Sequence to fold (454 residues):
Amino acid sequence: MNNQQLWQAVLGGMEVSLSKANFNTWFKNTNIAERGADYIIIAVPSAFNRDWISAKYQQEILKTLKNLAPEIKELKYRLGGTSSQNETTPNKPGTKNSTEQSSHKEFSTTTGPSNFSGLIPKYTFETFIVGKNNELAHAASQAVAKSPGTQYNPLFIYGGVGLGKTHLMHAAGHRLLQTNPKTKILYVTSEKFANDYVNAISQKRMEEFKKEYRGVDALLIDDIQFMAGKEGFQEEFFHTFNELRDKGKQIIITSDRQPKDIPAVEQRLVSRFEWGMVADIQAPDLETRMAILRNKMEKKGSVLSEDILFYIAENVVSNIRELEGALNRLAVYQQMENRGMVLDQAKTILASIIGTKKRITSAKKIAESVAEFYNISMEDLIKQSRKKEFVKPRQIAMYLIRKELDNSFPSIGDFFGGRDHTTVMHAVEKVENLKTNKDSFKQELDLILDKLFI
Ligand code: ADP
Ligand code: MG
Fold:
């Protein structure tokens, strides 16, 4: 029996015991990459598939193999390519423990402490589509990247959710680094700044904190509106701002509204925000939305017809993240189905994003969906256990409750058995990071969201 036949036989076995959707999600585009004397290396399209298959289906695969190729004792995995570095060798093959370790590792190594610039690789000028809605902010960001600390300092970019503020800010950061790789850039959300500040005070590490924040060449502070009402933070930020600006270091700030509309912010900060350049980003027009969709589609290497793109562009109007989300979702389905898609199918798939979106009303509903998705009990999801297999779903549930319901951090902490609000903030930040940096993780979240809305 050759490798292909062997794998077909295994898949045949799996197919009968799984629902079609499940089978397609996890086993489409898998095959045997290599077969040794006593092991098999399975090629999987993503780390997400690998973790899932090894956690849930490894035993069953081995059982089937036992009849067909009894010499096989061990399963390894290889992501997409052929480099052996990509292999996952569970130390105790087939045991639950080893797979948990691998998936946990995957989860934690992508984030970690921000002792690096924190820039997201794909947010560059090259991937940013310029339209009438954002040309000012784009030009200003380029100018700042070209001659930092001079013309426009600070650069203050504001606009609604998902319109490219963070993207532009990172793009300027990347360009600065390209021009001079030694540039010290620090990207943080204002929530992280505030959190670091509070920790520094309580742990008596203020000197360290100041060194970190005031020793940079460019400070990128995202979503400054969250400084509203936090006086200690504002005081500290005021001094950081002054020192950096005096030294000719560049500051870039984003916000969902213009400086004077941010509530509960000291006047002296508001006026400083307006010292440099204030640039807004508006919602993109239809033409720009189409351009963004075409561009993203080409980058993904997927092919969707014009009428599908138009359908998305016409219906998703005020948020580029959602525009992208719609496209990604279709791309994932298309990949799974491995064939062209017609408009009606696209409409069905996008029903959860476009049109009458069923709003979720409670944290409990979200938590239940997440628990169900990961096949764990509500009790395990909520209670204090730090076991790895529960931590990830819990963090995802916290994130979704925050994003979908906009509940406060403390109230989410309460919901999860009285956890501290900083734990929730950490979870949200972590999931956000993974979501932006790891496509497979993003897909995982999308699948959960699909279930929430359908
Ligand atoms: P914001 O910070 O304003 O909420 P983001 O910068 O996070 O928005 O953008 C949301 C998503 O939309 C990101 O994936 C980003 O790459 C994408 N995006 C936004 N504007 C553009 C654009 N003009 N061209 C290409 N992609 C964009
Ligand atoms: Mg942002």
